[in-house]
Known about the structure:
- By secondary structure, the protein is of the alpha/beta class.
- It is about 40% helix and about 15% strand.
- It has a six-stranded parallel β-sheet, sandwiched between helices. The chain has a six-stranded parallel β-sheet with strand order 15-14-16-17-19-18, with helices on both faces. A five-stranded parallel β-sheet has the order 10-9-11-12-13, sandwiched between helices.
- Helix 16 links the parallel strand 14 and strand 15 (about 425).
- Helix 1 runs parallel beside helix 7 (about 145-155).
- The chain is globular.
- It starts with a strand and ends in a 6-residue tail after the last helix.
- Bound molecules: thiamine diphosphate (TPP) and magnesium ion.
- Magnesium ion binds near residues 407, 459, 460, 488 and 489.
Amino acid sequence: MKMTGGQIVVEYLIREGMPILFGVPGHGNTALLDAFVDRRDEISLVQAIHEQGATHMADAYHRVTGKASGVFTSIGPGAANTAMGVACAYIDSVPLLLLTGSVHTYMRGRGVLQELERTHWANFPRMIEPVVKRWWQPSRVDQLPNILHLAFNVMLEGRRGPALLDIPMDVQAESAEITDFPEPLSRRPRGRAHGDTEMVSAAAKLLLRAERPLILIGGGVQASEADGVLVRVAEFLGAPVTVTWMGKGAIAEDHELYAWPCGDLGSISGNTLAREADVILAVGCRFTDRTASSFRRGVTFNIPPTKLIQIDLDPYEIGKNYPIEIGIVGDARATLDDLLVSLREFSGSRDYRATPYFEHVQDLKRQWEEALRGPRESDSNPMTISRALVVARSVLKRDGIVVTGAGNPQSQAFNEFPVYGPRQHITTGGFSAMGFEVPAAIGAKLAAPNRQVLAIVGDGSFLQTVQELAMAAQYDIPAVFLVLNNFGWECIKNLQVTQFGADRVIATTFKKRDGTPFSANLAHVAQGFGCYAERVESADALGPALQRAFAAERPAVIEALCSRELPESSTMSTGWWDVAVPTYHREQRAKYEAARSEEALT
Ligand SMILES: Cc1ncc(C[n+]2csc(CCOP(=O)(O)OP(=O)(O)O)c2C)c(N)n1
Ligand SMILES: [Mg+2]
């Protein structure tokens, strides 16, 4: 059958079951988009306002459904605008197919409109190369079927991530005789990668001997849908569970063994249990500085002497930041399934509730709740973010999805806002990127139209991608956006104040030249985009406003004015984070150096 390059792409995406793509057109991809016209009942194209928004939408669509989606852009600026969103997806191992338009093969290097060509012709792929697993730039139409199957295998197999097809305009438009169109599953490995049997049984024995076992979970647990077996392993061992940003939600956070997060932003319970553990079972996590309190010994971890069992699909992560007792390369779910079988072989089930360790875990959890009580119940006006989060949690249904991105809202939701199931806490973990929340909440709502979706977003982050509200209004996507407006990049201001002094605030608050605080009226802005919107000044008014927002059944923004001065403008963090202090701040520098001397990069 004769097919154009565009038709081949569309046919293949449909065969893969890709439901939706997000993007912005240009002259560089009209030939590709034209091929969607005749297939629009089988696959949808959604217009974003900005290509960054499109990538966050596609990314969140996957995080909620587990299905990969795609992004389409023109050449040059349209393609370059995706860099941020593709980077977020890459660092968090999210599959995403990026389809960019590229220079006609016969014009390469001539400097056509929007071509990057001074070091190499048609050079966009090299701009994005560090954040895609692999990229292709076909030169002929008949290369496309093979490239498409490879791109899907690359995105979906092993540690997932984005793939790029940079498709020349002529390749989109010209046709070739395609006789052997690949059936996706005829070329894709199936099943899961199990960990080494001997190592799994060694891990089971070590865990059964442990007196203070702890389970640390990262994004790999969510990606492999290992949440069910993870809870059974935790209950079998009576092991408390702590999480990274990417792991949050894999265990219901009202489970008695849930210990809240560890790390620099982490909780009393998460950090105490992590540093006291004799054995840690870490699954699908990278041990970043944020999880490990910048590797400062004894703050979050004490590895060694704590013995580490690490399970990860990517061998690169094993032993990267801490030495291991046992390292197992494997899919989280398959390997935990095997581990549970092995545990049951060696031991009967135990009544963990009768142990002193369980009592200790409960006691630490109570301490954490107690520590949060002040900011949560604070009457400060404007309200604390902690109080706003309590109100938001009381409104959001149990299976609601919460989306965060950066700043205080992301950190505080991590520590203070319980979620009750996997794929319900959508956040940009590795990149912690401002601008993620608005488009990601839109993508999440499209992915789960029957569930509530709530973005919890700071004013700074909101303003970076606020334009996507127009897209949400255009498509009637009823996500709710709670904007915690503290008139600035408050978490960074707080860092300046606590590290350098109250008189060292620079370039972080939004102020007029005469020093008066400034903010656009974000509710009015949202109304202008066609959203339901309210500005709320007191915590008591927030609950009813959020109820109205969910009832509005169209995109809705609730702007809540929040505290701007410490201590009300922040909350507890019980770990350590290595953020450099200049030597001329002598006192602070001395303290910083003392703390830094306890970091151990092994
Ligand atoms: C794109 C991007 N630029 C800069 C940063 C650094 N940064 C992290 S949080 C933050 C401020 C966030 O402000 P806001 O969203 O208003 O939340 P707040 O901390 O004020 O509550 C900044 C500038 C970032 N994470 N992402
Ligand atoms: Mg702010």
